[in-house]
Design goal:
544 residues, two-stranded antiparallel ribbon, 23 helices, globular, NADH dehydrogenase (ubiquinone) activity, NADH:ubiquinone reductase (H(+)-translocating), membrane, EC 7.1.1.2, mitochondrion
Length: 544
Amino acid sequence: MYIFFCLIFILFSFLSFFLSVVFFEFNSIFIEFHISYCFSNLSFIFMIDFISLLFFSCVCFISSIVFFYSGFYMNILLKESSDSKRFLAILFLFVVSMFFLIFSYSWTLLMLGWDGLGIVSFLLVIYYNDEKSFNSGILTVFTNRIGDCFFILSFMFMFYFMDYTYLFISYESCFVFSFLLMLGCITKSAQIPFSSWLPAAMAAPTPVSSLVHSSTLVTAGVFLIIRFNYLFSNVWFILSYVSLLTMILGGLFANLEVDFKKIVAMSTLSQLGLMIFSVSMGYWLLCFLHMLFHALFKSLLFLSTGGLMHLLMGNQDSRFFGSLTNIFYSKLFFSISCFSLMGFPFFLGFYSKDLMVGIFLLKNFELFSLFFCLFCIFTVSYSIRLIFIGFMMFPSFYSFISFSEKNNFFFPLLFLFLILLSCSSFYFYSYFPLVLLNFFESFLGVLIIIMGILNFYFLKMFKYNFYFLFSKMFFFTEFSILFGKGIFLSSYNYKFDLSWMEMFGSHGVKTLIYYYDMLLKKFFNLELFIFLKIVLLFVFLFIL
């Protein structure tokens, strides 16, 4: 079953890619469906263009790799149990929700894909059915529900003033609509201060994390900002400051985290800030290019991380990864993805990040240039830290255990690596002109890499308390949980629930329904002559 879905998504991926090449030379196509029910008419519009086809091709390709990898990683390929079917169905619904989000050009379809991603992500996070997974799932779904509320408010605002069907109407003069839509998008993309759900979502299985944190859930908000960038003309300045803060804090958190999967999640957080910052500066096509490249090398990073964790029997503590001294190929793919993450020359991430460095540092953006340079240093620093942990750390007490790689993990990583190599030069030289730089501009990237390496060794000198503060993301998660529980009114809520709410709340309604249900059962179980006596008695009383 997993192989079947893998082949189906591979087919859709190549088909979407070839169609994207065709649509790059032509305009977009709109497909509209009308549904009439009673006195209401609904229109569903699909938009097919170069951006949607290319992004859907990337989503389908990564989904096919994840489907193939999941069967071996979770040891459920050969036993088609109920858990395996449930996992397969949830993953498939995730991709279907992404399909509606990518191709929809009406609010009804857009909300279908948007809410579908939120619900299915909750089911994936709580897949292991333990307390930690459930708490992480609750935090994830509640935080995303905040963004959904903003999204629905913007929908209601548009419905009140304009039309709820078409999205190609200009809203340049509507600040409230743009602001609400922006809040919904940055919540789904885990921007500050809605970032606490992103590391909590790592409680999901590692193949799911590879799909969620590379090309689906976290990029949903970024894709909508790219798609409808003309709607955000009044809030670009807010979006730029929020994304810049997310870039800096995400890079800092990734440098000081201990949990290995959370380090990778924090790197995703900083890269999401970079994407939204690029759109806010007006370079939406460059952001789209980096989003595609990031999806490829980040999925390779997650899948290779899952292979290393699988050999360590599920251990996520980064201090134990030095035990895997003989695991060559997994560590090789892991290091290649880390080099792409830092933008090392001639790796995949270099082709998009080099353009960003040239634009943001040399176009006189003043204060933005300084913070962007700091972000680049942090990116190099946590990438070097990941390479040091996964490839160069000295063995620990797991070293007396013999580890060996499995071909089941090797083949999907190899296939993803080959696609990663072939895509870099193709996209860059096909769609972007050659940029000539002087000596200083060429040396700037090398200088940032050197400063990032020095920053990595500098951060190693700090003590535990400093690490603890920043690895907790300034206690964003704890504050989210405390406010969710209603800490300031908890005793009053408890007393109120035990008194009036016990009688008039859901428990009281349930008791009342149960009582009348039992009364009706007793009434209908009476013998016929007793029922006739009661009827005659009521008739006699009525006559009197």
